[in-house]
Amino acid sequence: MTTTIRGGQLARLLGQWHSLPGRHRSPDYAALAGAVRGLLSDGRLPLGVRMPAERELAESLGISRTTVSAAYRALRESDHLTSRRGAGSWTTLPSGHRVATSGLWAAGDDLDMIDLGVAASGAPLELVPAARAAADDLPRYLGTAGYHPTGLVELREAVAELYTGRGVTTSPEQILITAGTQQALDLVVRLCVPPGSPVLVEAPTYPNALAALSSRRARINTHGIDPAFGWDGEMLLGALRQTKPRLTYVIPEFHNPTGHLMAADLRERLVATAHSAGTELVVDESFVDLALDVDEMPPPVAVFDRHSRVVSIGGMSKAYWGGLRIGWVRASAPLVQRLAAIRVGVDLASPVLEQLVAVRLLRQSSQIVAARRAQLRDRRAALIAALGEHLPEWTFAMPPGGLTLWAELDGPISSALARAAEDVGVRLAPGPRFGLDGTMERFLRLPFTLAPDDLAEAVRRIASVRHDLDRGARPEWRTPSVIA
Ligand SMILES: Cc1ncc(COP(=O)(O)O)c(C=O)c1O
Q1: Ligand 1: nearest atom to the Cα of 118
Q2: What is the fold, at CATH topology level, of the domain defined by 146-363?
């Protein structure tokens, strides 16, 4: 089925296309064509979408029809558009090129590329010994069929203990083990969000959460997070009361991408307001272990939950290793059963061996998490030092934890910079990936998960292309090499 994008929708996605750097050196039609290619390259404009008629787009953008005609012609010449007389024009890509289908910019095969598109660390040293030990645990399960739709009891117990240790009493029956936090979110969305229902998310937010919600055709409303100060309580609670979303998704601990930590009193008010607005409150705790300069962590959001409104999701990808694909849901026991029932339509259960590795790692959690925090503090310092030296005009709030820094740039250049940075071997996730409507061109998420030398080198390279953008050099169109 072909979908159509209307002129107004495309204009919103295009955002500030007319003021991208280097723009003064290229005619309007070329800038417009370049901006459409940019949207296609990062998946915000899907393939096979019918583009608006030239006249409609011209009206929406407030430019002449001749300019739109010339841009469409340029897009046809570069194989980004196919037109048939009387039937319209569809988005395409030159053969052999691939496009992002989700918000995830996966690590590429190109080892020379410094990948700042992914906010995740390499595995801890303890992983290989834990995997060997887990293989020795395996015989206990080999006589069974190996399908455990809610997860191995010993892992559910270990995760329940983590919550109880954080102050929210939890039994193993309240835990569902999933293939990462992403699957946890997807299952909750499948269960709780009928197609077309309103949902509320932060802006900016984690791109793959947007992907999960979009795939259920949710109507996504946003609550803006201030880059410097984080959540505005009155605005957030007001948005909840007004939009009465079916589901609200928040990242209260070291929010991705801004790094903010939600205060305890807002957590409490959020749960109460969610209850009166009749919304499921999905709390993504992916980064909860990664406090870097926090004296005392606020209580988990679930502490304030008296009406089973809160569904907490989390996992081991950030403090341990993403390659384990271990995540979980903490919810009421009946909800866990319902989630497990719909899970069988997706995959039947998580792999036994990985769950046994997870149990082994969680037994050493204090040592592994302490080492991870120390590593991240060093890396955050290295990134900040490099930014101070090479890009002092960029500003940011110091993230008290997590893996990322949300930099405000010196102009609406994020997508242009990301395209130019690919040419010098740095992969970036530009600001608009973290929003819905092509805004946030002034922002860039910078993870501090790589080694200090790589971070310093990446910032040097970014600074050099930033300088070129100022001199009017426009990045050539280039398809990202590996996108998942
Ligand atoms: C906020 C947030 N939620 C979920 C995920 C997905 O994590 P997992 O690897 O556990 O599926 C990420 C990964 O970056 C994330 O940042």
Answers
A1: 14
A2: Aspartate Aminotransferase; domain 2 (3.40.640)
What distance in angstroms lies between residue 137's CA and the mean position of ligand 1's atoms?
Answer: 28
Q: Is this structure's pTM higher than 0.90?
A: no
- Tokens 């970036």 sit on residue: 428
Taking domain 3-91, whether its CATH number is 1.10.10.10 is answered by: yes
Residues 6 or more apart from 446 whose CB is under 8 A from it? 116, 383, 387, 404, 405, 406, 407
Question: How far is residue 14's CA from residue 8's CA, in Å, rounded to a whole number?
Answer: 10
CB under 6 Å to ligand 1: residues? 119, 180-182, 206, 251, 256, 284, 286, 315, 317, 322, 327
Out of 3.40.30.10, 3.90.1150.10, 3.30.420.40, 3.40.640.10, the CATH code matching 114-123+367-470 is 3.90.1150.10
448 Cα to the center of ligand 1, angstroms: 16
Nearest CA to ligand 1 atom 14: 119
Residues of the chain with CATH 3.40.640.10: 146-363
Cα(209) to ligand 1 centroid in Å equals 8
470 alpha carbon – ligand 1 mean position (Å): 35
User: What atom in ligand 1 is closest to the CA of residue 205?
Assistant: 1
CA separation, residue 42 to residues 90, 205, 218 (Å): 17, 16, 21
Please, are residues 281 and 246 in contact by the beta-carbon 8 Å criterion? Answer: no
Task: For Cα atoms 223, 49, 29, give the angle at the middle one, nearest 5 degrees.
Answer: 90
Element (H, E) at 312: strand 310-315
Question: One digit per residue, pLDDT tens: the chain, 484 residues?
Answer: 457 888 998 888 887 777 655 555 678 898 899 888 877 766 667 777 889 999 999 999 999 999 999 999 999 998 889 998 888 999 887 764 444 434 444 445 556 789 999 999 999 999 999 999 999 999 999 999 999 999 999 999 999 999 999 999 999 999 999 999 999 999 999 999 999 999 999 999 999 999 999 988 999 998 889 999 999 999 999 999 999 999 999 999 999 999 999 999 999 999 999 999 999 999 999 999 999 999 999 999 999 999 999 999 999 999 999 999 999 999 999 999 999 999 999 899 999 999 999 999 999 999 999 999 999 999 999 999 999 999 999 999 999 999 999 999 998 899 889 989 988 999 999 998 998 866 788 999 999 999 999 999 999 999 999 988 876 555 444 444 333 2
Q: What CA–CA distances, in Å, run from 216 to 26, 195, 213?
A: 40, 5, 5
Substitution site in 185, 210, 256 for ligand 1 pocket (most atoms within 8 Å of beta carbon)? 256
d(CA 293, ligand 1 centre) in Å: 22
CB 444 within 8 Å of CB 132? no
Interval between CA 204 and ligand 1 midpoint (Å): 15
